[in-house]
Amino acid sequence: MTKTVVLALLVALSGCFAACHSNTVNTVSNAGVNAKITRINDKRVDTDSRLAKKLCLTEIRQSETNDEHMRIQIYLKNLTKSTYTFIYRFNWYDDKGTEVDNPDNDNWTKETILGGDDVTLTSIAPQKNCRDFKLRLKAVE
To answer: Is the per-residue pLDDT at 8 higher than 80?
Structure first.
């Protein structure tokens, strides 16, 4: 019995090792939705034609942290077969439309996305009174 279990485990591990070295990506996710998700329909996406041919905005989700700060998740897909690198940063605005000072946001964040893959960019509002945001993206040459 023990030899059978060990043999089955070795066969499974060898399959996993082979899969790790292939060019395909396998994804596993929950079939049911357990989290409360608020999707945002957004018309403010503005990009140059070169970037629009490479990255596609697939979804924007909004939620709240435990301490009542707004959380935004932006889902992007690389439309090309090539690895693409860009930098980004979020700007946050209060309920009057004034940009909120965010000392953590002085620098841009670098992100690399493989061809055909997707990436999630997440930001949490620096203050509770933040009601809106803007995502800025720039290509890295």
So the answer is: no
